[in-house]
Design a protein that fits this description.
The protein has five helices and no strands.
């Protein structure tokens, strides 16, 4: 087990070192700047979709999906972030209570 932990740590360190070794001129390109700006949004969306719709069974609609829908409606209506998160959390909690 420790070999796997140490191997994973070494791999992460080498990946970080590889990222720091990229020449600066490669990072100044317009396309790279756009991708770097949009990548966190895409990763967060993928994480939300995975956590919302994966239950070990086939795709299913449950309280999490309804909470995500409430959050999406609140975002479209330009509600403040706290209202979006609170609305989704309350909706999910109430549906799970039922």
């Amino acid at each position: 087990m420790w070999a796997a932990v140490l191997g994973g740590s070494l791999a992460c360190y080498l990946l970080k070192l590889a990222g720091l070794s990229v020449p600066q001129r490669w990072l100044e390109g317009e396309r790279v700047q756009r991708v770097a700006a949009l990548l966190p949004v895409a990763l967060l969306a993928a994480l939300i979709a995975t956590q919302t719709f994966s239950t070990g069974r086939s795709l299913t609609i449950d309280a999490r999906a309804v909470g995500l829908g409430v959050a999406a409606v609140a975002v479209v209506l330009r509600a403040p972030f706290l209202v979006v998160v609170t609305g989704a959390a309350i909706t999910t909690a109430l549906l799970r209570l039922l």
